[in-house]
Specification:
single chain, six-stranded mixed sheet, four-stranded antiparallel sheet, 12 strands, globular
């Protein structure tokens, strides 16, 4: 698969009353055509900020975002229009992201109008009907408004809108976290089916490792705006190399209650992104930290009897 998206040294700082919030610091990764890349980490790790920067909803402080060989980081709004057709978002809250004053037909047809897709109203309506069928909504949904649908149905409308412009890349930011648990699996399966059928590339942002493992080809683990580990989804979940990844995995509920599982409870609070720790940012909560971690990020090493643990930047990145 060829590379669709390259993120190179992405840094995102925000001014705050107490100083500068270092939301994302020197993050680099690539995303291939037709690949699902999971982006996982606890709240405040910078996941959503990375998605917004890629979509150019915010301007990066530093770094480059290269889409199909073109650096889009400094492009004007007008020059970004072709890219915006190719990269579409699915937001966390489907009710907040849908215009309550617009019918479903107008909501889904809006990208068609903006990007000049379809000749006339009848063709656009045919396209909207086809999109409704793709996401499992009836044709009579056309004339209804967002408040007349359930949360899961509203997210299906959002997905249909994101597909209307025929994008190559979807940025899905916590697309099921605002939904009932009973509905989440339906939406995840729908996204997976559409991604495979349409051969879409997807950046799937979530905090639930079980969901990320199910839908993703590769996974990036974030902590305090830095990448801790990157790897194939199955390998990373079954054999994590970073202690933070191991702690996240240990927090995933075990479907078999009688099966023993060691729960790793991280000590202390998440450090402030205004004043992050020196060296390895995870060292203040890491059970395997040594004094050298305050100065640099050491390579993978043996720590204590029976422990295959450590910070693994050189090996993983």
């Amino acid at each position: 698969m060829s590379t669709l998206l390259e993120v190179q040294g992405l840094t995102q700082h925000f001014s705050a009353r107490g100083g500068t919030v270092r939301a994302v610091e020197n993050v680099s990764f690539d995303l291939r055509e037709g690949e699902v890349l999971g982006l996982v980490g606890e709240s405040g790790s910078g996941k959503t900020t990375i998605g917004q920067a890629i979509l150019r909803l915010i301007d990066p402080t530093a770094g480059r975002i290269v889409f199909r060989g073109e650096d889009i980081t400094k492009l004007t709004d007008r020059a970004l229009k072709p890219f915006r057709r190719q990269a579409q978002p699915i937001f966390q809250d489907p009710f907040g992201s849908l215009n309550p004053r617009m019918t479903v037909e107008k909501i889904i047809a809006e990208p068609l109008l903006v990007h000049g897709i379809g000749k006339g109203r009848e063709e656009r309506r045919r396209r909207v009907n086809a999109l409704l069928a793709q996401v499992g909504l009836p044709r009579d949904a056309l004339t209804r408004y967002p408040h007349q649908f359930s949360g899961g149905q509203r997210q299906r409308i959002s997905i249909a809108r994101s597909l209307a412009a025929e994008p190559a890349l979807i940025i899905a930011d916590e697309p099921v976290s605002a939904l009932d648990v009973s509905i989440q699996a339906q939406i995840i399966n729908l996204l997976r089916e559409l991604q495979q059928r349409l051969k879409l590339a997807m950046l799937f942002i979530a905090h639930d490792l079980a969901v990320v493992e199910y839908i993703s080809d590769r996974v990036i683990v974030l902590y305090l705006g830095r990448i801790m580990e990157v790897g194939p989804a199955k390998t990373l979940i079954r054999a994590p190399k970073h202690p933070y990844t191991e702690a996240l995995i240990s927090a995933v509920p075990e479907p078999e209650p009688d099966r023993a599982k060691r729960r790793i409870v991280l000590q202390g609070d998440l450090p402030s992104p205004i004043d992050p720790p020196s060296g390895c940012v995870f060292r203040t909560r890491c059970p395997y930290a040594i004094p050298a971690c305050a100065e640099q990020i050491p390579a993978l090493r043996q720590v204590g009897p029976g422990h295959r643990k450590a910070c693994i930047r050189d090996e993983i990145l």
